[in-house]
Amino acid sequence: MPEKMRAVVKTKAAPGAELIEVDVPTIDPDQVLVKVKATSICGTDVHIYEWDKWAQSRIHVPQTLGHEFAGEIVEVGSQVTKLKIGDYISAETHIPCNDCIQCLTGQQHICGNLKILGVDCNGCFAEYAAIPEIVAWKNDTSIPPEFATVQEPLGNAVYCTTVEPVLGKSVLIFGDGPTGLFAAGVARVAGAALIMIVGRHPVRLEIAKKMGADILINGHSDDVEAIVRTETGGVGVDVVLDMAGTQVAIDQGFRLVRKGGRVSAFGVAAGPVQLDLNNGVVFKGVTIYGINGRLMYDTWFKVANLLKYKRLDISPIVTHTLLLEEFEKGFSLMMTRPKISGKVVMFPEQ
């Protein structure tokens, strides 16, 4: 086992990050050491890289970035009982305490003392990563690393889309980021009758079409509400999936969901938003679900089976593969406007 490794580290409280040599992590008794095969960039990583207000309030430097990965276990802690050297894993990034009321009532994903990999502790943009056994997920070896690494965000889409059945229903997705694109594919394999997506970036809207979206709506240039009302005969949609979190998306979503419909709120707003509670929710009898993370581990079983049995092809969303040393290019692709990338996957080794 080497003593040193390369890692993408937030070395100072400022924009950017550095690829530097650091010590290979020493694992705790309840952890495993993973040799990272692939790791992917998330919007949260971009927030940290750009060093926005949220990152400034949450991140303590120095810290290794990243929370999405696939890799092979090379060492296990003395208290680890369910994993062994050689296991091919990814990880649920919400690390629960297993002691609070949420954890004890089957809601580990919203643990009251939640820690997040790569946010509250060192992450996986590195050659090796230390992962608690409690969040390690054994992958089927048939799932390639570039797909296994994105199961965490795919799980967001699965939970958000299927928290209630969408079979035979009309679905409207706000947001053409990777999770919104995943949601289009999930809605298709889950049997949605009509899938519409509102986005801002032509490249990503074309990906949405490949994933199964029927109607592509450009939020910049199209009349969103007119199109949706025409497609639904003026009734509105059965299901709204908010993957954007903007005031505009929230306003339009609650106007366009039909009476008795469902809204899944996954998008994270930059600050407080307003909601027409009377007309958007109460008088319509709308059901709202707040979606945070993935159900542990119900969602993971669904995600793994969709990939293992090839029911969902996510290859259109994995648009770029790079070496870890090209991380700056990866972040540049993620930050380019208009958006030209889906998921950017990085490999520590060629």
From TrEMBL:
Pfam families associated with the record: ADH_N, ADH_zinc_N
Source domain of life: Bacteria
EC number: 1.1.1.103
Keyword Oxidoreductase: yes
Domain Enoyl reductase (ER): 16-346
Keyword tRNA-binding annotated: no
InterPro entries assigned: ADH-like_C, ADH-like_N, ADH_Zn_CS, ER, GroES-like_sf, NAD(P)-bd_dom_sf, Zn_alcohol_dh
The protein's required cofactors: Zn(2+)
Alphabetically ordered keywords of this record: Metal-binding, Oxidoreductase, Zinc
GO molecular function: L-threonine 3-dehydrogenase activity; zinc ion binding
NCBIfam families (alphabetical): PRK05396.1
Family note: Belongs to the zinc-containing alcohol dehydrogenase family.
Protein name: L-threonine 3-dehydrogenase
Record organism: candidate division TA06 bacterium SM23_40
